Structures are given as C-alpha cells and as structure tokens.
Amino acid sequence: MAYRILSIVGGLAFMTQGQVVSSFSNTVHETRAIADGAHSSWRAAPRLPPEVIVPVRIALKQQNLAVGIDRLMSMSHPDSSDYGKTLTTDEVTRLFAPSAVSVEAVRDWLVESGVPPATIAHSDSKGWLAVDMTAAHSERLLESELYEFEHLKTGKASTSERVFRIADMMYSECENNLEASLPKLTLDSRRSPISTQPWHPPAPAYSLTPELQACSVNITPPCLRALYGIPPGHINDTVNTLGFYEQGDYYAAEDLDLFFANYAPWVPQGTRPTLQSVDGGDAPYPINDSNVGGEADLDLDIGIALVYPQSVVVYQVDDAIYAPQEVALDNTFNTFLDSLDGSYCDYSAYGITGDSPDIDPKYPDPAAGGYKGQRQCGVYKPTRVISISFGEAEGDFPKPYVERQCNEFMKLSLQGHTILIASGDYGVAAPPRDGSPSGCLSDSGQNQTIFSAPYPNDCPWTTSVGGSMVEPNATARDPESAFQVCSPSSENCYSSTGGFSNYFSTPSYQKAAVAEWFDNHNPGYPTYVANANASNIGEGGGIYNRAGRAVPDVAANAANMLLYVGGELGKFYGASLAAPIWGSVVTLINQQRTIAGKGPVGFLNPVLYANPWALNDITNGSNPGCGTNGFTAVKGWDPVTGLGTPLSALSRHRIRVSDMLMPFSLL
C-alpha cells in the first residue's frame, strides 16, 4: 500500500453567467511507500469510519527562499552596509509567507466543497490553513481513503493525519520579489544594552603552570582559556543565554558538581542549566542511569565553565521512549526545530509537509511512559547561540528531508542565531555501521570507498566545527594539530570529520577558500560532481563530490578532556568537545556586542572566510578513512580543521581584528 500526497492544481474558481464553475482538479503529487517500502516503519490498519472527525492541515508553499539566502549573505558579510541587520520573527514570517492569491485559492476550494468559511483557520505563521471535517468529507475532497497505521517497531497505532501540500497553486503573482514590501529593517529593541559597564580585557597572564604544561595530556577549562585567550566570564544578561541541544543523552547533577569542584572552582556548587523540555525530554538523570553517557555532561562542563555566570539552557529533545532509539539509530532534529518555530511543524518544501512519520517521532506517544501531550510547536524562543554535538551521516536521510531542515536553519540565521555543529570523529567516513560496516558509501560495485559527509552540518547555513589537539609533549602555548587518536593496536582511529556534501553545493562565502585549496593542495583522489538529486554518487570512479558544501568551517580542541561520568573520572575525545568551546566563545563575544548596543554576530561563516587571519591556522595532521589517508591539514582552509581555531591572545603579533572578534584581542 502506498500513502498518496495530493496536490491541488489548476487555477482559481471563476464566474460564468453568474455561477461558480470550479477549475480545481486533484493529481497525485507524491507517493510514499508506507507498508511495503524497504525502509518502511508503518503498516496499514483499519480504514477510518466515515463519521470520524479528521483534523486537516493544509500547508502552503512558502516563497522567496532565494531572497532569504541573499538577505542572509548581505547581513552576515562584514563589507555589507546591512551587516548585523538581522530580521525579527515577524519579518521572517512575512518574507516567506505564501501569497494572498494562494491562500484565497485554497480557501475558495474548501468553501466550494462545503466547508463553512467560519471554520477555516489561518495559522499565525501564515504557512497553513486548518479545518476539521469528517473522514467521509476528507475522502471525497481528496479522492482518497483514510486509514489508521501501526508502527512496526513499537506497535503504536495512530490515525494518519491527512496532511497534504498545495504545491503547484503558485501563480506568477506568488513568485514576485517581496523585498520592496518589507519594512525598513531595524534592530530588535530587545538587543538594547543590558549593562553599561565598560569591559576592560585583562592582560594575558597565562604563565606555564604545571597544569598548562600538561594540556597535551589533560585538557581542563584553564587549558582552553590559555589556548584560545578566553577571558573569565563576568556577565549574566538576559539575552545571551547559551543553548545546548541534547537528545537521548542526559546530564547528572552530581557529575557537574564534581567537575566544577576539581577543574572550574569559580563555578559554585549546585550551578545548573535551565531545562527546556521538548516533547517530554527530561533532565537531569540519576548519576547511575545508563543514559548518562557523557555527551550532555561534557557540553555543560565546558559551556558553564567558560561563560559563567552567564545562564545556560538545555533543550532536552524527545521523551524517554523515542530519544534513546534515535541516538542508537538516527539523530533527527525536526521535533527540536518544531519547538522553536511553530510554522515549521507544517512547513512544506521539497515535497515534504511537516515531520516525516517514517523518520520522526510522533506525539502523543501511546507507549507506556511516553509523552502524552501534543507535539510542541513554537513554544520556545531560541537562544542566540545553539551548540549541537549530535549528528549522522548525510546519506542516512532523503535529500528533500535534509533540504527542508536546512531552510529552517537559514531562517534561524536570518534572525541572528548562531548554529554550531560538531563535524564528527571518523575522518572522511561516518561512524562504522552507519549506512555500511565501514561508514563509507558504496560505489556501483558495492565497494565501500566513497567518502561520507556529515549531517546536519552539511547545511551551508550552519557552522561546522572540527577537532584539534595539543600535540604530545607540547604546551598550551604551542601550535595545535588536527585531532587524531588511534588505539594502541591502531585498529580504531578517530579524527576530525571533514569533506564535501553530496546534497548541497559549495556556498558563495567559501568558494574562494575551497578553490585555493584545490589549486594548491589537491590530494589527487578521483572526484565527481553530484547531480541535483545526488543519484550519481561515485560516478566515474570518484570518491568525493568536488562541488559540494565543504566542512568543517572551524575547529577547536577535541582530545584528552577530563570528565566525570557516572561519578567516575575519565578522558573524552571528539569534535563534541569542540562545538561547546566555539559556542562559549561566540556567547562571550555577543555579550560585548550587547554592551556596545549591537546585535548578535549571528551567522558566522561569511565573516570568518573573509578574515581567515583572525583564526589560528592548523597545518599538521590528517583525517584518514575509507581506505585512504583522507585529507591533510594545510595552510589556509582545509577539510580537516577548516579555517582553524579561535584566535589566541598569546599571539606574538598585534593584529587589527574585525568588529566581531575585537573582544577577544587581548593585546
């Protein structure tokens, strides 16, 4: 059985001799294999009785996505007169809202079918219409049949929501550029200065104490401060809370206290993040719980230690039934994005409307102990900086699914939010058994030799963070190397993930840097150019897409972090350490911009690629995988450590830094 998504095509109703003659007709827009597909998680159950009331949500195609990208590039580039002029939530809503022509056409179609006009609701986000009708009415309207579906893995039964897309009802008026109709951009009044006290950067005073001499063995917050010139935090304002995404891994309060007592004594015992629960997510967990795996602990250890006394938020995503499954199988982000933007819950793009039932959690969760509320849509205001240390292989998800999410990251960036995502720990591959035993993609002969890009930092509107490390016997004053750690037998190696997306092309802000890398440091591997639907991966014997979005953008320390997990002290490795470091740095920068009466830095990448001298370039190390030596860290941008790590205050040379980075030039 297939699940058909209908598209209403044709035109507006028109008048002939005083009567309305309908020109609407139904066509199949998309067919999804639900019961018999290779990746199906659902099977059909009984057909709905005709008298059952069905909530119908009609998502309308948004417009001006190209305009949104142009606007983002303009407000994010330091040479632009629009630099820093981010949009408000209302301005983003108006920019992408479906045209009035489309809204009225769908409303007329519903009324013509017998729906009372007063029962049709238009969402605050302008992205969809809502109406309740009987199953019989819905079946006549859509020329289809409605069934319940049962989840094959969990046994959960639920009524299939008849969500369909008004995809092609886009007349020429809908494609008009709405730039002229937008009001003149102004800074959000919420960005007014919180503190008027001037900030006087302390002189660098990082003497090589025994602790800093041992940073190649044990990384602690003082090591991070010394490596990157990060000053002690001293502000807790209301607009620069640092946010962390967590899913299926949970922090233990006792672990935080142990870490602060031993490695960040300036943080008082009992300091905790604020929980923002998404669809039943909960925290903290008991210290002896198996779901306390270290990821959430390390995010909060690093973040709180570096920004204290600034407040910190944990977005704990999905209930205890779904979240551990997703960590074991696929980390997804749709329910998280739903909670930040109500319009995303039913947003239509690339043939997908709303969350994907065969990939994403579905709420209310009928399982025992599951979250019984409705899916949370637009319930939280996102923090200015969000650090994410979760992800999967790009190829784990359909291209349209990933593209739809990427649009949402773009909208968050337009509003001044910085999204930092750890690139990964397996070099040019995904984790083993993620898509294949080796984590590499297969060529036409099923040889696992093709490099695998990471998700979701393949999206060009996020900042991908790779890993670096202090070399053996080096100190916090010495140059770092690319992160790479192997077991004594060398059977298992971990290194900074980098490479090229198969789903997204090289964005404009990094084209020059990537072209320079190809001109001067091409490793000589055979390549291909992915087509529009990424169906030619590996074509001609190529092992990576030379025309793809390149990752990572930047890097930070990812090795030898001392950490308490379950009350036990150990060492942790991986780019998961690097993302919260960058999140903390950007948060401290935003604090100083707030004092100066400026908005947040927002989307970082255009500024960083335009000012590569403002970072510590990493020129040693590599990221092997897929039977190759991977890529090598070289002068300039590279697909191992990107542009490099945050600028060190211990630089021997006085340099003029950009407006964005000035607070961290402690010279």
Structural write-up:
This protein is α/β, with parallel strands linked by helices and 667 residues long. It has 14 helices and 33 strands. Strands 12, 13, 14, 17, 19, 23, 24 and 29 form an eight-stranded mixed beta sheet that branches. A four-stranded mixed beta sheet has the order 7-8-6-11. Strands 5-9-10 form a three-stranded antiparallel beta sheet, with no helix packed on it. The longest helix has 18 residues, at 578-595.
Helix content: 10-25%
Main beta-sheet strand count, sense and barrel state: 8 strands, mixed
Radius of gyration: 26 Å
Number of helices: 14
The total strand number stands at: 33
For the termini, the CA-CA separation is: 67 Å
Layout of helices and strands, plus pairs?
Elements: E1 2-9, E2 14-16, E3 19-21, E4 25-33, E5 42-47, E6 53-60, H1 65-76, H2 89-96, H3 100-112, E7 121-122, E8 128-134, H4 135-142, E9 147-151, E10 157-159, E11 164-166, H5 210-213, H6 221-228, E12 242-246, H7 253-263, E13 274-278, H8 295-307, E14 312-317, H9 322-328, H10 334-340, E15 348-349, E16 352-353, E17 385-388, E18 392-393, H11 399-414, E19 418-422, E20 441-442, E21 448-450, E22 454-455, E23 463-469, E24 481-482, E25 484-486, E26 493-495, E27 499-505, H12 508-521, E28 548-551, E29 554-557, E30 561-565, E31 568-572, H13 578-595, H14 605-610, E32 615-616, E33 645-646
Parallel strand pairs: 6-11, 12-14, 12-17, 13-14, 17-19, 19-23, 23-29
Antiparallel strand pairs: 1-4, 2-3, 5-9, 6-8, 7-8, 9-10, 15-16, 18-22, 20-21, 23-24, 25-26, 27-28, 30-31, 32-33
